[in-house]
């Protein structure tokens, strides 16, 4: 009994001594480095991936449409414009990172060729053989070459939409497949929300902080997208919406329904006349709108990021703008045409355009004197930021460049019921100026056709 008491008192004294001894000062944890954007990630790893491919003995490679997996869903090749634009971004990153003296051969839009190969499928041995039997054009010059390996991959999007995980894989003509870029995290940008098929509306400028920072604007857009994802049926009629889209088949308004968080209109029939009408829901401000059908801008059929696309401008007093096709000049447009069952080919993997989707992205105008000034970046950071913007645009020159060096310089300087182009008609438009705020105020995706598998 006494011994136990001594032990208890000794232990108590020891604990008291430890309690009174000041703990050594701990260094605060280093600040977490912000995640790079997808474009910054590709800009920094493009050279590394290209060298690895050349080290494996590959002379020419093609990039196929990526799969995208949203939180809680299965990987899909038709989530939005993001699937195909990931391939285009990687193409540009490989070209920018290549050595002009010994460039890696990068195929120009390999997915477009694959889309016309019946039975093409990089996920099966038979489908792979069909892909490797084709000849492909390089991104420069006129030479047609064999492809040694195809690249593709998977992007997984987090539940809050703010981050993504990118993995790039390759498969060669011998059937060997492996990981080229292991799973790597990147930050999602607001510009990518529309590419993912996410709809959202941000409050009008008058209801937002007077000096809203770019970070606050992005955060608000992500929050809005998350809310619209849960209750998308409220989106088209929401009080904050500034632009609506009506879809007409043969001058009859197509009804919009909502299912599984998606806005859907009935599928058009072959031969029907299709018209899209942008309606301005406010007279308080001008807005610039990008309308894409199957991933193509309805102006000039551009495939670039929405911010860099040409836009339809709704003046304060503009009530609506009808769009009957792809506006190709100030006077000419190509009417929408509904493809036949045979033309709207069904494939195991849809390598073509983002079939069956109409996306609407709305931008505000900077108020006079409201455009923020950006501090100049150090030379190395400025070049990295420039390459990131180039990869985001993911556009090759419209005219084929003969040499790789010229291409690299030029890039840096500057299914049934599926809609396609038809007859050329006279439609006159007027060009106006618009100082675009890069953070969209509204995005909407409408599904009008679901590819069959």
Low-confidence stretches: 1-21, 415-419
Helix content: 10-25%
Radius of gyration: 26 Å
- Major β-sheet annotation: 8 strands, mixed
How many helices in DSSP terms? 9
Strand portion, in percent?
A: 25-35%
The overall number of domains is: 2
- General form: globular
Overall mean pLDDT: 82
**Roughly how many Å apart are the termini?**
81 Å
User: What's the β-strand tally?
Assistant: 23
Protein structure class = alpha+beta
Give the key terms:
2 domains; globular; six-stranded mixed β-sheet; alpha+beta; Rossmann fold; 453 residues; single chain; eight-stranded mixed β-sheet; disordered N terminus
Overall description:
- With 453 residues, the protein is an alpha+beta fold.
- 25% of the residues lie in helices and 25% in strands.
- The protein folds into two domains: 38-191, ABC-type transport auxiliary lipoprotein component (Rossmann fold, 3-Layer(aba) Sandwich), CATH 3.40.50.10610; 193-367 and 412-447, no CATH class.
- It has helices at residues 2-20, 38-55, 82-97, 110-114, 125-132, 191-195, 214-230, 379-393, 404-413; strands spanning 60-63, 67-69, 105-106, 136-137, 144-145, 149-157, 163-172, 177-187, 200-201, 243-249, 252-253, 257-259, 262-264, 274-280, 287-293, 296-297, 312-314, 320-323, 325-327, 332-338, 357-364, 419-426, 442-447.
- Strands 9, 12, 13, 15, 16, 17, 21 and 23 form an eight-stranded mixed beta sheet that branches. Strands 1, 2, 3, 6, 7 and 8 form a six-stranded mixed beta sheet that branches. A four-stranded antiparallel beta sheet has the order 11-10-14-18, with no helix packed on it.
- The chain is globular, with a radius of gyration of 26 Å.
- The N and C termini lie far apart (81 Å).
